Amino acid sequence: MLQTIPGARVAIIRTISDLGRVRHLGGRTQFVICSREQAKLGYRWTPAAVLRPAHDDVGGLARDDAGGIARLVCCPSCFTAATDEEQVPLTWSDLEVKKRRCLACGGPLWQADRGGPRRFPLADHIHRRMSGYFDLLVCDEVHEYKARGSAQGLAAGTLAEACAKTLTLTGTIFGGCARRH
């Protein structure tokens, strides 16, 4: 970039502090480079739920296969049983895989893991604090962002909302496998 555009300023972003320094780069043309991993990377999280005794059809305590009291994973805010969209009760391992919200009250069934590193996704910071600052977002290998609800796809969408224009690049135009007919 420096060889092809005279007077350009270039910064590689890894932290929110780096983003703060971008504002002071000066120059007419700025290029900010951020990896998709840094854009999506946030703090670690852990499930947040309470285990409550399950009751059988007649109001007594339900028992599990080992004879112990069966427990339901419940929302820590409203204490209703945590279920998925099809009303199937969630297990603790379900909550460890994906951040979910209580269908009854909308409260989060997860919380920040205070034992992990403190990070904030750069894409979210740019969207909240620097929306409109960047004229153009260039996303390379955009075919890798196509998974619905993936962290990198959500980060790319968040960045696209914060920038005036978006240019997406890919060398893979067909996401399936080739075969002869």
Number of helices: 5
User: Mind telling me the C-alpha Rg?
Assistant: 23 Å
Extended strand count: 8
Percent of residues in helices: 10-25%
How are strands sequenced across the largest beta sheet?
Answer: 1-2
Quick overview of this protein structure:
This protein has 181 residues and is α/β, with parallel strands linked by helices. It is built from 5 helices and 8 strands, in the order E-H-E-H-E-E-E-H-E-H-E-H-E.
Structural summary, described in words:
Strands 1-2 form a two-stranded parallel ribbon. A two-stranded antiparallel sheet has the order 3-6. The protein has a two-stranded antiparallel sheet with strand order 4-5. By secondary structure, the chain is of the alpha/beta class. The protein has five helices and eight strands; from the N terminus they run βαβαβββαβαβαβ. The radius of gyration is 23 Å and the shape is elongated. The two termini are 45 Å apart. The mean pLDDT is 84. It folds into two domains: 84 residues; 73 residues, no CATH class. α1 links the parallel β1 and β2. 21% of the residues lie in helices and 18% in strands.
Notable traits:
alpha/beta, two-stranded parallel ribbon, 8 strands, 2 domains, 181 residues
Helix/strand layout:
Elements: E1 9-13, H1 16-22, E2 30-34, H2 36-40, E3 45-47, E4 50-53, E5 71-74, H3 92-97, E6 110-112, H4 122-129, E7 136-139, H5 151-162, E8 165-168
Parallel strand pairs: 1-2, 7-8
Antiparallel strand pairs: 3-6, 4-5
